[in-house]
Amino acid sequence: MRPGTERRKWRAPTEPDGVTVLVRGAKVAAMPQPPALTAEQRQAALDKAAKVRRERAEVKEKLKMGSLSLADLLARADSDETVGKMKVLSVLESLPGLGKVKARRLMETVGISETRRLQGLGTNQRDALLTHTAKS
Predict the structure, then answer these.
(1) Who's near 56: CB < 8 A, 6+ residues apart?
(2) Which end of the chain is less crowded, N or C, counting CB atoms within 10 A of the terminal residue's CB?
(3) What is the rounded CA–CA span in Å between residue 55 and residue 122?
(4) What is the rounded CA–CA span in Å between residue 12 and residue 107?
(5) Residue 66: which region, alpha, beta or left (left: phi > 0; alpha: psi -120 to 50)?
(6) For residue 72, what are the contacts with CB-CB under 8 A and spacing of at least 6?
(7) Nearest to 97, CA basis, from 72, 68, 66
(8) What own/partner pairs with CB < 8 Å and gap ≥ 24 does 7-15 have?
(9) Which H or E run contains 132?
(10) First-to-last CA distance in the chain?
C-alpha cells in the first residue's frame, strides 16, 4: 500500500453524555448495559449450565450406546427442557452409524436447518427423521 492510502476505521461520534450516537445521520440511543450479577447469581448460573451440559452429554452417550432410541428422545423433548433445547444435528451425530457428514445430509434431505433444536421440530420433520434413521 502506498503511503497515505491506508484505510481508517470509521467510528460513530458520541454525544457528550455518551449515550446517543449518530448512525447514518439519525440519532439512535445506545443499548443499556444489563445489570451486573452478584457473585451468588453468577455461581448459580455456572452451576446450572454445568448441570445441563452433563445431562446433554448423558443423553448423547445413551443414544450412542443404543439404550435410548431417537423416538423416545423426541417424545421426551416436549416435556424436558434440557432435551428440547438440544440441537438436532448433535443428536443425529450421536446416533450409531451416523457421522457428521451423513447427519448433515439427512437434515438437508428432510429440510431441517442446522440450527434447529429438538423442541422446534414439526410433526412431519419428526416423522421423516424417524423414517430415514430406521432405514440406516
Answers:
(1) 82, 83, 86
(2) N
(3) 24
(4) 42
(5) left
(6) none
(7) 66
(8) none
(9) helix 123-135
(10) 56
C-alpha cell at 35: 445489570
How many other CB atoms are there within 10 angstroms of residue 95's CB atom? 20
What's the grid cell of residue 83? 432435551
| Residue that has been written with the C-alpha cell 457528550 in this structure | 16
pLDDT in tens, the chain (136 residues): 566 666 666 555 555 555 555 556 666 666 677 788 898 999 999 999 999 999 999 999 999 998 989 999 999 988 889 999 999 999 999 999 888 999 999 999 999 999 999 999 899 999 999 998 886 5
Q: What is the pLDDT of residue 130?
A: 92
Q: At 124, list the grid cell.
A: 412431519
Residue 98's alpha-carbon distances to 8, 26, 93, in angstroms, are 48, 51, 6
